[in-house]
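Chapter summary example.
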Amino acid sequence: MTDATHPFDALMEITARPSVVFVRGAGSYLWDDSRKRYLDFVQGWAVNALGHSPPAVAEALAAQANRLLTPSPAFYNGPSLKLAQALVENSCFDRVFFANSGAEANEGAIKLARKYGAKYKNGAFKIITFEGGFHGRTLATMSASGKKAFEPLFEPKVSGFRKAKLNDLDSVKALISDNTVAVMLEPIQGEAGVWPASDQFLKELRALTKEHGLLLIVDEIQTGMGRTGRLFHYEHAGIEPDIMTLGKGIGGGVPLAALLATEHASCFEHGDQGGTFNGNPLMCAAGLAVLEEVSKPEFLKAAADAGLFLESELQKLSARHGLGEVRGRGLLLALDLKLPIGASIVAEAFADGVLINSPQPDALRFMPALNVTREEISLMIDCLDAILVKAGAARRVA
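The structure predicted for these 398 residues follows.
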């Protein structure tokens, strides 16, 4: 497919995309090459924590680009040391390994757990994950995921992953064996339709893993960096995991991810883990700029308040149209549509200049910038309300 300005055919076809080209972004808005403006409640799938092209990140990148791009991971660099220290100071973890994507961070977590099993648990290597979970698109992370669409792809998968049911502790207990080394989960399953693990389940899971000497790995690729109103989601449950992965929001729009671990779980030896661009100063400078802003108590409170407002407005919308529950926490929320009409609503909203996401046919997902305003939330709600009225998608009762 081509048009007069843009040749689309050179890109490998891996997903359906609308034939518009975005050329500029600022805060909660994107503009395409015809100057049409879009209100963005996807933000690169929860990537742009501070919105599009935030000045703090742009300035950090420009300043660092004029100093040093990368000296190679064989040497220390200032931004990576500062960012690692800041992450440690703001979490329950002691060590940080930087990566380029969430999938790579999760791959590292899997490798670290298996290394731990080899060193301390007689070669235990199995990791309990969860139905509906999504951990990335490498072979190992696809194998760890509980996404049904992945099951027939790229066989044979990496072995060693058994799937429990979210919020069902007995299903976890039933899978524990002498070969089990860890339990890995997303605190909120985003791709599955925004299904949260309850705080009580997370507490019980932490107790169970300690009882059996297992590592607890939290995949906070989507929930971390203030997305749920705390810097990290595990804080809501008052637990301390052994390993955590971060991605998406940590870079504020650039490819950056992190694997964090306690001293107890940090068992990599020289040569076990690495990566050409991992921890490069350019990306870490951006990460520092994001963390410095997002970790401010007043910023987190404002994000939490925005999340409560969005949740309230979605609940009102649901009541007006006879729809289902609002799930999630903070600024990672889903609206249950009760009907498989998500794709058509997304398309209508796009035509009206609003970007939303439908991770499942019967649900809409909302992942705005953490500094989204009430006015922007209201504009999105008004757009969605008009679409539901126009389409007659559900019964209007108020």
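To summarize the output: The chain is about 35% helix and 20% strand.
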